[in-house]
Each structure stands twice: as C-alpha cells, then as structure tokens.
Amino acid sequence: MPLKWIHDLSREGAERLAVELSVPVQGILDELCKRVKEKWKFLETYLPPQRADKSDLAMHRGESSDIRVSSVQGHVTYSQIKLRAKVVTDLVKGIPVLSNAEPEAVLKFVIRASEVYDLGLVTDEEWLDILVARTTGRFTQIISGHLSASANWGVGRSELRSTFLPPRIREGLLTKYALERFHFVAEDLSKYIESVVAATNTLDYDVPESALVDGLVQNIHPNVRSQFFFLHKPTSIKELYALAGQVAEGRAIEERRIRAERSGSTDMVQQRSRGSRPVSMAVGQTRRFGLNSAKCWKCSGRGHLKKDCPSSDVSVGEAIGGNDRGTR
User: Fold this and answer.
1) CA-CA distance, 279 to 291, in Å (whole number)?
2) What residue spans carry the region label Disordered (predicted)?
3) What predicted TM-score, i.e. pTM, was given to this entire model?
4) How far is the C-alpha of 185 from the C-alpha of 10, rounded, in Å?
C-alpha cells in the first residue's frame, strides 16, 4: 500500500510511531521517516490483506471474519490499531450468522450486532461492511444497499426490523423476551436485566423507564427479590443494575460464609479424632492371662476354677480346706 502518509507526519508523530516500531529516533525528520518506512514495509508483510477504501479498519466481504488494518492516522498508533482489530474480531465472532428469516434468529442477530456497534469501535460504514460477512441472501442485499447508499447502521437496522419483524411478530417476541421473561433463581441478575432491556429496545417497546423497571422487578425470582427488602426501590435501569451488583455481592459473601462454616466443622471433627485414644485391652488380656494360669482346687488342673471343673473326683479343696473359688 502507499506509504506517503509516513512522510506527511510531524516530527512528534514520526517519533511516536518510531517508538512503537522500535526504530531509533535520532537524526533529521526525513531520515527518521525513511527508517520508519523501511520498518513498516517489513512489518506489513505479516499483516492481513488490506482494503484501500477504508481509513483504518474494515472487514473482508466473504466467509472470513478477519479484520483488515489499512493505515495509521496521526494520533492512532500501530499497536492501538492492532489491538482494536483483535477486539472487534473477537466480538464479531459472537454475532450469529443470519441465514434465514426466522423471527427469533433475526432478533438475536440485531440485538448482538447493536451491542457490539454501541461500543463505538468502528464507523457505520465499517460496521455495515463487517456485517456483510455475517449474513446471506436477502439480508446481505439489504446491508450492502445501505453500505453503498446511506452507510448508516441505524437505517439498515430499521429496515431489517420492518422487513422481517412486522408489528404482530414483534408483539409475540416482546411477550416472550420481555413481558413474560421470568428470572430464574440461579441466573445472573445483571445478565437477565441486560437481555430484557436489549429486547425492549430492539422491539420498540415504548413505555416509561419506571414502568419497564417495575415489570423487571416483578419478574425477578421471589427468592432474589426478597433480598431487596433492605434496599430502596429502583426507578431506573441504572439503579436496577446497581441493586443487581449488591445482590451479587451478597451472594458472594453468603457463599464465603458457608465455605467457612464447612471448613470450621471439618477442623473440629479432625481435632476430636486426634484427641481420642483407643480403649486399652490390658484388663481383658490380664483376665485371660489369669484364667489360663488358674489352678482348680478340685482336680488340681489348670485353666479353670473348681465351680467349672469337669471332673467328678473328690474335691482336693475339700480335703485341704479350700473354698469353691479355688482359694483357701
């Protein structure tokens, strides 16, 4: 690509770009620009193919979703362009490819595309060019038409909605994705709010913000809504997001408390097990040892007492005055 723009840089701009490219900044401006130009030519061979009709960022019109970097504008550095290109590329991958006119598919495409566009990373013309690679058929024709005419994403989005999401279809989608979109107890509250707000914006749900907030609060799961008891009632989406953050923080603290209690219970069990001692069998062993060495006073045998003597002979103990326990 032409590199005349390098020689049009000011001394400050050339030095800033030279630092980004690890080029020495000594010497006069003309020599500095030559060094920058040589380094840029070397790096350019490792960059993706570029589009001459874009200022600094564009998307190839095809199946690939790679971002094309084309030039550096004065205050924008090479590293910044590469970083922005990577961010946009990653975000675009999250936009579903629109290939059929099924209303829910169109709704999800428009919502996700609007979310990425609202980040302000690309111009309208660049964004329409990017979306061409994420559509097919009639959708591509509509977006391409606005790319060559108005180059306005808002106008293109309006045509997509009016063509594929007529009023009756929008009414059904609004009921499903907003009015009767109920929050589940394990669902992230902020994401729930975000999804409902995005659906109402895309489907042109024209009600006061306070009414939308009231509906959202009513559809939040009762177990989660009960945590609002000590908090003020939200009247705006911003306040509702703030409450969602407090609820998430409360949940995190509760989980930490439960883990601490479980850890404490485990420690107590381990301490008790370490403090206990096995019961000694010395007494039983002594008794067994004493029984084995006992002498019967009836038959003079060993291993049993007189009362358990199996012999029917005359008791030796009786002859010598012993008692029935084998002792005198």
Assistant:
1) 22
2) 308-328
3) 0.56
4) 59
